[in-house]
Amino acid sequence: MAANRPGDIAPQALEEAAEWLMNMSAGEVSQAQQAAWLSWRNSSVEHERAWQRAELLMGKLAGLPPTLSMSALDRPAEPGRRALISRLALLLALGPASWAGWHLTERQGWAADYRSAIGECRELVLADGTQVFLNTDSAIDVRFDANQRFIHLLRGEILVQTAVDTQLPSRPLRVGTGEGRLQALGTRFVVREVAGRTYLAVLEGAVRVEPANARQAEPQVVRAGERTDFDAHTLGALRPVDGSVSAWTQGMLLADKMRLQALVSELARYRRGFIRCDPQIADLPVSGAFPVSDWRRTVNMLVATYPVAVTEHMEGYWTLLSAR
To answer: Domain named FecR protein: which ranges (predicted)?
Structure first.
């Protein structure tokens, strides 16, 4: 059978396939259960396609170490069997073309010193007194030695409030990403890594930035009230920091005439599932303070304020925002 594009199988069939996959993997299967499964599978072409997608997913997971493959499935924010079935169904909907990237995302940061779950904002105090806030789905390694205090951002976003190092001589505090290195100069700052690019916003003090492969280029100092972004080779222009950059530490997402599509993309970071914004309303300007941990309240705010309709499937795992 030809490969199917992601999303071309009905969500209901995918959820049923996920539930059958759970049942068939739970242990010894009775003849009655096997007969019911075969009956479901043969009852429609859609069911057969959904099951083939499920078998393909299990084949992909078999290529991972067991501690990764099943742990990657059993981390839903909601406890219980229903949440795991929904997570399996979501993976089935992503389709084979997306699984390689999903595996990379799942593995990246899995063995990190500290990580936050999807929807979680976590606060840490390091050995020197430095405070680190981890935004949703973030991971860091921390390495302190005689020469430096080093935080490696593996994925996601952090806010760092540096402490004065009591060790003499004083050790610099640095943050590393895949694109370069940042050195704090007595400061409070936010670092986010997205798709091969690092975003920096300095709230207090200053940060020295050095892209990883910038040849014969002097490190640039970014001062309080400034932000920039960079890849491994070049540093972007300096721009003013807006008030929304650290609102996530208070559980909020601030929008000031933000495109609805951009708002949806940001909110999607804080919840499991799939959210789609209809292109007809993607450019709708949206303003407000939206709670990142309360999706239902945020949806109600959007519906009450803007010409937006919300359609949900699978207990909210599939959500569509469209014109009302």
So the answer is: 113-208
At 158, the pLDDT band (50, 70, 90 cuts) reads very high
173-177 vs 149-161, strand pairing mode: parallel
Please state at what angle helix 31-42 crosses helix 45-61, rounded to 10 degrees: 120
Q: What is the CA radius of gyration of the chain?
A: 23
With tokens 């050995």, the residue in question is: 127
Q: Where are the domains of the chain?
A: 11-107, 114-240, 251-323
Task: Please name every residue paired with 253 in a beta bridge, in sequence order, or none if there are none.
Answer: 290
Neighbours of 162 (CB within 10 A): 23
Distance CA 37, CA 43 (A): 10
pTM as predicted? 0.69
Considering the chain, what is the average pLDDT of its residues? Answer: 83
Whole-angstrom distance, CA of residue 264 vs CA of residue 298: 10
Map residue 51 onto helix, strand or coil: helix
Spatial separation of the C-alpha atoms in residues 107 and 63, rounded to whole Å: 13
- Cα separation, 206 vs 178, in Å, equals 21
DSSP state of 284: -
| CATH number of the structural domain 114-240 | 2.60.120.1440
**DSSP letter string over 196-222?**
TEEEEEEEESEEEEEETT-TT---EEE
DSSP H helices, the chain, are 11-25, 31-42, 45-61, 66-69, 81-94, 96-107, 260-268, 295-305
Instruction: Evaluate whether 57 touches 92 at the Cβ level (below 8 Å).
Output: yes
Contact indicator for 137, 144 with CB cutoff of 8 Å: no
Q: In the numeric block, which tokens belong to residue 113?
A: 């010193």
251-323: CATH topology is Phage tail protein beta-alpha-beta fold (3.55.50)
Quote the CA–CA distance of 45 and 61 in Å, as a whole number: 25
User: 227 or 14: whose pLDDT is higher?
Assistant: 227
Residue identified by tokens 């290195």 is 181
Helix, strand, coil: what percent of the chain each, to 5?
30, 30, 35
